[in-house]
Amino acid sequence: MGEPSREEYKIQSFDAETQQLLKTALKDPGAVDLEKVANVIVDHSLQDCVFSKEAGRMCYAIIQAESKQAGQSVFRRGLLNRLQQEYQAREQLRARSLQGWVCYVTFICNIFDYLRVNNMPMMALVNPVYDCLFRLAQPDSLSKEEEVDCLVLQLHRVGEQLEKMNGQRMDELFVLIRDGFLLPTGLSSLAQLLLLEIIEFRAA
Asked: Ramachandran region of residue 133, left (φ > 0), alpha (ψ -120 to 50) or beta?
């Protein structure tokens, strides 16, 4: 049978009907409701942190397929609208489910990493991504290892791109991170280690 493609492997975590919907979206996007597809991917990303790390690849593939087939961007519009809705309700999401919040930040950073306009990251996502990372650098977030881990992972993944888009905000973010590292806010030893590592990584 050969190795399944990475997209097909990711689809296995869905029920059979949704798997069929996503496979069709990847091969023949005009045959399905692409707004529904966008909602399905976002919903699953908020529940499944493994999927949220790789969903950007699938979204990029659907956007490319739709653009090639119809020259349209229904899926991208639906995806960005839904990301914006979740972004506006991010504090409620964090209060309701820390895992859901971490998944959301992972997902929006993944989308930022993959989606390009004229070979450049999407400007519309720069400030929302920064805002999420700033939230992860607040003292109450730094006391939670899941959020520190997410912050450091995303900075490794998209920090360089973000800095090119807005260097001043990255400087401000690292002031927050350094302050958080130095203040006795009850950081765990793992959190301290992760923060020190990303501070040294940027300094180098």
From this structure: alpha
User: Which CATH code is given to the segment(s) 118-203?
Assistant: 1.25.40.180
Please indicate whether the domains covering 17-108 and 118-203 agree at the CATH topology level. yes
Beta bridge mates, 116: 121
In this model, does residue 2 exceed pLDDT 50?
no
How far, in Å, CA of 34 to CA of 67, rounded?
A: 12
Domain 17-108 classification at class level: mainly alpha
Model pLDDT for residues 68-121, shown as the tens digit of each residue? 988 888 999 999 999 999 999 999 999 999 999 999 999 999 999 999 877 788
The C-alpha atoms of residue 34 and residue 40 are separated, in whole angstroms, by 10
Prediction pTM value: 0.90
What is the residue-averaged pLDDT of the chain? 91
φ, ψ at 13 (rounded to 5°): -80, 0
